[in-house]
Amino acid sequence: MTSDRTALPVSLLPEGWPRPKGYSNGMMAEGRIITTGGLVGWDEQGRFADGFVAQAEQAFRNIVAVLEAGGAGPEHLVRLTWFVTDIEAYRANLPGIGAAYRATIGRNFPAMAVIGVAALVEPAAMIEIEATAVIPAA
Questions:
Q1: pLDDT for residue 9
Q2: CA gap 98, 16 in Å, rounded
C-alpha cells in the first residue's frame, strides 16, 4: 500500500499466483472499519425478492445502503462472506449474479468466500451476505 492515507483498499496477489476472477485473494486497507450483519435479499418492508439472482441483487443494494449510512461506498469493500442455502443454485446463476453484482457494486472485487448452509434464520432467504469495508483515514 502506498503512504497516501487516502488510498482505497488494495487487492493482494502473491507473485506467481493466477489472477482470481470476480474476487481477490486478500485486501489491504487503512482507516475506519464498517462491518455489516448478515444482509438478506429483502426490501425495506421485509419483502423478499423472487428468485436467487433477485435476492442476491437486493442483498447487494442493502449492503450499499448500509455502507452509505456510514459514509462509504462499494469501492471501500474489503471482504464479503456469502452464505447460500443452495450452492448448486448459486453455481447455476453465476452469470446473473455477476451482472447484478457489477450493476450494484461495480467492478470492485474484494476478498470473498461463499459457504453453503442448510438454512438461514429468515426462512425465505436464499442468500445472506456479511460485508466489511474500510474508509481511508483522512
A1: 85
A2: 26
The pLDDT tens digits of the residues spanning 92-124 come to 999 999 999 999 999 999 999 999 999 999 999
Give the C-alpha separation, 65 to 13, whole Å. Answer: 29
Residues in the chain: 138
CA separation for the pair 80, 91 (Å, rounded): 17
The C-alpha cell that represents 19 in the structure block: 489472477
Q: Quick one: 97 exposed, middle or buried, by C-beta within 10 A (0-12, 13-18, 19+)?
A: buried
**CB atoms near residue 24 (< 10 Å):** 21
Grid coordinates standing for 60? 447487494
Give the CA count within 13 Å in the CB-facing half-sphere of 97: 19
